[in-house]
């Protein structure tokens, strides 16, 4: 009984060369919707490779760590495969390993009033303001 090893499917956009532009790689791995968005993100300083701010033409290599800031949080991606063409999501997913820690869950208390209880009294409004962190005696 001989076991056959799993076939590794290499996407059509994969390169045999040793490096790809960082903006192209981010676009090809579907981190950003367009190549121009990827270039703009790199130019704005939202992308770091191995801890260093880079330019859009910087060449990433297999084994590099790419940090991409999206919506105020960093995505940490390890480069497994070099892509220069956009491929389907399942194929793109094989090109990187996601090392991003889970986002913190923040619970913000919400003041709820009984339905049909009418407008809050002055005392209730001040309590709501205090709960929200406002000083009800300050004038805006």
From TrEMBL:
Single GO term (MF): ribosomal large subunit binding
InterPro entries: HSP15, S4_RNA-bd, S4_RNA-bd_sf
Any Gene Ontology biological process: cellular response to heat
Biased composition (Basic and acidic residues): 95-105, 124-140
UniProt entry tagged with the keyword Nucleotide-binding: no
Stretches for region Disordered: 92-140
Alphabetical keyword list: DNA-binding, RNA-binding
TM regions (residue ranges): none
Domain (RNA-binding S4) ranges: 20-77
UniProt cross-references to PROSITE patterns, sorted A to Z: S4
Superkingdom classification of source: Bacteria
Pfam families in the record: S4 (PF01479)
Family: Belongs to the HSP15 family.
This protein's name: Heat-shock protein
């Amino acid at each position: 009984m001989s076991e056959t090893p799993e076939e590794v499917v290499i996407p059509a956009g994969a390169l045999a060369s040793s490096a790809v532009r960082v903006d192209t790689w981010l676009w090809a791995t579907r981190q950003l919707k367009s190549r121009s968005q990827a270039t703009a993100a790199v130019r704005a300083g939202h992308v770091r490779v191995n801890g260093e701010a880079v330019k859009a033409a910087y060449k990433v290599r297999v084994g590099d760590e790419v940090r991409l800031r999206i919506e105020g949080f960093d995505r940490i991606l390890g480069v497994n495969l070099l892509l220069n063409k956009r491929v389907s999501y399942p194929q793109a997913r094989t090109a990187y390993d996601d090392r991003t820690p889970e986002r913190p869950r923040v619970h913000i208390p919400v003041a709820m009033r009984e339905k049909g209880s009418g407008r809050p009294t002055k005392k209730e409004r001040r309590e709501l303001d205090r709960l929200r962190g406002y000083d009800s005696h300050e004038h805006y």
